[in-house]
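G., the chain you wanted modeled:
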Amino acid sequence: MSKIVMQADLSNNIHLETKAVKAAINSGEIHWSGRLLMLVLNFIPLVHAACTILALLVLHAGGPVRFGVAIGILYILPALTTRMLLLSNAIPAGHIAIGSRGFFAWWLSFQLQVVFCRFPALEELLRLVPGLYSQWLRLWGAQIGRFTYWAAGTLITDRSFLCIGNDVVFGAGVRLNSHVLDKSDEGAVELLLATVKIGDGVMVGGYSLLTAGTEIVSHEVTRAFLISPPFSVWKDGRRIRTKKIVRK
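Predicted structure as tokens:
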């Protein structure tokens, strides 16, 4: 039941974040050209799913080739596209203004991941093969150490913004959420985007939520249902708040 609740919570989180972005749009923080661009980008998950299905149903090549093309479209293409955005420095980490170039680059990468957020079973299939899921995350630009164990129900919203050490264990239903929406000191909505960092030998308790910029030092064992606010450092069983990173 808890796994179902966490998956439902992820969908609700996506819905709430979308509402927050819409609120920023309605308040005039995004101009009409930006609104049009967002509308176009919002079709990416539908196009992503449709192209995968069409490759399976329409492609005239033989079975193995048809299946390989569909797998490439589903799993490989969005990861490599996001990786190219990272290599071009189009997605900055930090405090990102809604409507800025960095925001739209992140929104593009986020839309490329929506299919996996909506259908977690697609990632559970990869976890059946030891090491395959970690290797797939590396395609997105994540840094994943050796012998990482991803328990059932692990949910990730920003696959590129992860730095995981060696011998890390994630309990069931852990959620890694490297972005949050917040208000700046001036009251404007902004995106906080920062890598979640997990040191060597860490065990993350089940059904925990680690948000933007969370850092857990090596060999920590966190409790279940831990909620880590943005830019928190966990050491010796307690939380230390860190200074927020600069605005972009």
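The chain has one domain: 2-241.

Shout if anything looks off.
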